[in-house]
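Many introductory courses stop at the sequence. We go one step further.
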Amino acid sequence: MRTTGLTGTLDWTDTEGEERALVLVHSLGTASSLWMRQMEPFSEMRRVIAIDLPGHGASTADDREYTIEELGQDVLAVCDDAGVDRFDYCGISIGGQIGLWLALEAPERVTSLVAACTAARIGTADKWSERIEAVRDGGLDSLLSTVVAGWFSPSFADRDPEGLETIRRVFTSTDPIGYIGCCAALRDADLRDRVTHISVPTLLVAGSLDVSTPVSDAEFLHERIPGSSLAVIEDSAHLACLDRPGDFTRAVLEAWAKW
């Protein structure tokens, strides 16, 4: 049963013959457009189902707090609606944490997992409570400069001004209700004691300049998830898939080739 307004916003494939599905889930405050640099290469190999979190992109939001479990169940509901039983999964930040939950709770559905710029425990409860209050008091515009600045390496604005402007627009157009609800999910989620039970093929991706989920968070997961691989994207901050799209895409494609 779907518990939020989560929706698959893009179902796209350029493949021929038998389809293998890939589910993409973005980070807090962005949308499925975050994957703009991966859509073409990924769709050449997979049927891509890109999902918007509640209040993000095309998804609606209920005025309440969410949990990682609810968001994970809604990903499964979107896949059910699309007629997809098993899928490769790639998520970043909160999307990556949802992927960890799916690998734990629905391993029969997850063919492989890419968990990027994420952690078993992202931040602290106090940090997320403060973020929630900041959005309630000043809206998302009040966070634009500080939050987006932490997403990218210093050279990103010169390398990809179009991408930066797109993400800035997406951030400020996010529904504060959905943003707050997802902040609550991050505030309460803690998978540190459980990730050792993940058994699906797993690639962990980290940005060398990421402050929100530093390399040490990926190393924590790598040490505990049996058989996992770790790719560190140099000169990349939190949103590595857009900050260094070529390196990010290459790391994922190389992992798929091994699996």
